[in-house]
């Protein structure tokens, strides 16, 4: 099971924009591209999708860029994944539906409660909010 590259890139872009949110600054395509090592063309396509989905607003011009439309604690990973790629599992996917349905349910429980603000925290805080399952 994998998340798509597009979903990964979308989260990385949003997290870069979150860094600017607290200071009321805008993030530009060149800044995000350089910081993430992703082409400006790809960043532009992803930011366009995120803007259309309502996560971002943009301003043109010399001082323009992208900003979040809501605070990072109001945007869940589930919302981003739904807007960019959809669910991991489709009911018509395969014969082992029950297994994939259980996995989808577990993933949904996490990403529905996981916000961009959570992802900005250190790993220790994130694991405190979402402790890993204990092995048997």
Short description:
The protein has 136 residues and is mainly alpha-helical. It has helices at 5-21, 29-36, 40-52, 77-84, 97-111, 116-120, 123-129, and strands at 56-59, 65-68.
List the main descriptive attributes of the protein structure presented here.
136 residues; mainly alpha; Arc Repressor Mutant, subunit A; two-stranded antiparallel ribbon; 7 helices; 54% helix; 6% strand; globular
Could you please describe the fold and organization of this structure?
- The protein has one domain (5-129): Arc Repressor Mutant, subunit A.
- By secondary structure, the protein is mainly alpha-helical.
- A hairpin with a 5-residue loop joins β1 (56-59) and β2 (65-68).
- It has a two-stranded antiparallel ribbon.
- The chain is built from seven helices and two strands.
Number of helices: 7
Helix share of residues? 40-55%
Under CATH, the homologous superfamily reads Winged helix-like DNA-binding domain superfamily/Winged helix DNA-binding domain
List SSEs in N-to-C order.
HHHEEHHHH
What is the fold's blueprint, element by element?
Layout: H1 5-21, H2 29-36, H3 40-52, E1 56-59, E2 65-68, H4 77-84, H5 97-111, H6 116-120, H7 123-129
Antiparallel strand pairs: 1-2
Helix pairs in contact: 1-3, 1-4, 2-3
